[in-house]
Specification:
With about 300 residues, the protein is an alpha/beta fold. The protein folds into two domains: about 220 residues, P-loop containing nucleotide triphosphate hydrolases (Rossmann fold); about 80 residues, Alpha-Beta Plaits, CATH 3.30.70. It is about 30% helix and about 30% strand. It contains ten helices and 14 strands. The strands form three sheets. The chain has a six-stranded mixed beta sheet with strand order 6-7-8-3-9-10, with helices on one face. Helix 3 packs across helix 4.
Length: about 300
């Protein structure tokens, strides 16, 4: 559906995008991440045709964005970080204008606008000036304009900015439902949101792709150790040495200790099953185990590990 091949972009002498290549399959929700200045926004602007590449190729549904821009862009709905809204129009006037720009046939235009407003829950403000809407509603109108014309590819840059928690949940559900008929590139600085929504994540840093994997596999990129949270009714000084002596336990770190209860982070060999041995070691101390569970690295952990400057 989306194919990017050896993409390069220079700004003067600075190489903002450095030969990246990837594909996005139909129906996939791709999280596209990167720290500020990594080249993420430049790449997204090239994909949508807002910028031209120095070299490389982008095709959308088989159409080259440079050689066949009108056909390629017809397949794209784009929500930039700042929605492209006309503040002196009503919501319905604005969506009518967008539909005209996208050359939606007149006989289906009205129905499509009504359907889109229902999808993003803005029908109740259709007659209001965009200028008078809250930030959350403005963001919803921005999402609505991406859906006009029923594009096969939807690119969303920070789509939940300004939304309250209930609206965020609604937008997450909407994005997930859209993947049934659309291919989606989703960018957000709220990494827990990306983890909840996306099938796959690409992380870009210094103009290069530094990670590309299904979301559930990314935790293995942080380190080889498996981490466990152990909560025991005993002082850390009593627990530390017996736990260190368990084969496969690489480190024992106290997270908190209060009222005789200690929380411990255990880093263990990923290739070894150590939970029984840990349980037996604690049992020999006659100390009650209150909690014992694995701790998967979050997407924030992965992102920080991959993109932070190496010391």
């Amino acid at each position: 559906m989306i194919e990017i091949s050896n993409l390069v972009k220079f700004y003067g002498d600075k190489r903002a995008v450095n030969g990246i290549s990837f594909t996005v399959n139909q129906g996939e929700i791709l999280g596209f991440l990167g720290p500020n200045g990594a080249g993420k926004s430049t790449t997204m602007n090239i994909i949508t045709g807002y910028l031209s590449a120095t070299s490389g190729k982008v095709t959308i549904n088989g159409y080259d964005i440079l050689e066949e821009p009108e056909l390629a862009k017809k397949n794209i709905g784009y929500l930039p970080e700042i929605p492209p809204l006309f503040m002196d129009m009503t919501v319905s006037e604005y969506l009518e204008y967008v539909a005209e720009l996208k050359k939606v046939p007149k006989d289906i235009r009205k129905k499509q606008i009504i359907d889109v407003m229902k999808m993003v829950h803005i029908g109740n403000v259709s007659g209001r000036l965009i200028h008078n809407l809250s930030k959350g509603y403005k963001q919803r109108v921005g999402i609505a304009q991406t859906l006009i014309g029923n594009p096969e590819v939807i690119i969303l840059d920070e789509p939940t900015v300004g939304l309250d928690p209930n609206q965020v949940i609604e937008v997450r559900k909407l994005i997930t439902s859209l993947s049934k008929n659309h291919t989606i590139i989703f960018s957000s600085h709220i990494l827990s949101e990306v983890q909840a929504i996306c099938d796959r994540v690409i992380i870009i840093n210094n103009g290069k792709i530094v990670a590309d994997a299904p979301t559930f596999e990314l935790s293995s990129r942080v380190e080889d150790n498996v981490h466990y949270l152990l909560v025991v009714e005993a002082p850390f000084s009593t627990l530390q040495m017996p736990l260190r002596a368990v084969p496969g336990v690489n480190s024992v770190r106290s997270l908190a200790e209060k009222n005789g209860i200690c929380q411990i982070d255990l880093a263990c060999e990923g290739s070894m099953e150590v939970r029984k041995s840990i349980s037996f070691a604690i049992a020999r101390l006659n100390a009650p185990i209150l909690e014992f569970r694995s701790m998967e690295p979050s997407l924030e952990d992965v992102f920080t590990s991959i993109t932070s400057p190496k010391k």
